Amino acid sequence: MFDKKGQIIVDKEECELDADDLMMTALDAGAEDFASEEEVFIVTTTPEDFGSVREALEAEGIEFLEATV
């Protein structure tokens, strides 16, 4: 009934990349979805791709508010 997903939440004020660059980095690394909320960006992944997406964002110097599967 429910799908297990990974979710990485990034604070907009702390992120040095603009939304398009962050989205492209996440999607290129294997993210399933990218959403821009009022104060945060939300990157959604499969559990299998969570590690590679997280590593790609960390390599860009992105800090997370939360990163969980």
Please characterize this protein's 3D structure.
The structure is a single chain. With 69 residues, the protein is of the alpha+beta class. Helix content is 29%, strand content 28%. It has two helices and four strands. It has helices at residues 19-28, 50-59; strands spanning 6-11, 33-36, 40-45, 66-68. A four-stranded antiparallel sheet has the order 2-3-1-4, with helices on one face. Helix 1 crosses helix 2 (50-59). The protein is globular, with a radius of gyration of 11 Å. The mean pLDDT is 95.
Could you give the order of strands across the largest sheet?
A: 2-3-1-4
The stretches of 5 or more residues where confidence is low (pLDDT under 50) are none
Structural category is: alpha+beta
Fraction of residues in β-strands? 25-35%
User: Secondary-structure element sequence?
Assistant: EHEEHE
Distance between the amino and carboxyl termini? 17 Å
Number of helices: 2
Categorize the overall geometry: globular
Number of strands: 4
What composes the largest sheet?
A: 4 strands, antiparallel
Tell me the radius of gyration. 11 Å
* Helix residue percentage: 25-40%
Q: What would the average pLDDT be, to the nearest integer? A: 95
Considering the chains and any ligands shown, give keywords for the structure.
about 30% helix, 4-stranded antiparallel β-sheet, about 70 residues, 4 strands, alpha+beta, 2 helices
Element layout with pairings:
Elements: E1 6-11, H1 19-28, E2 33-36, E3 40-45, H2 50-59, E4 66-68
Antiparallel strand pairs: 1-3, 1-4, 2-3
Helix pairs in contact: 1-2
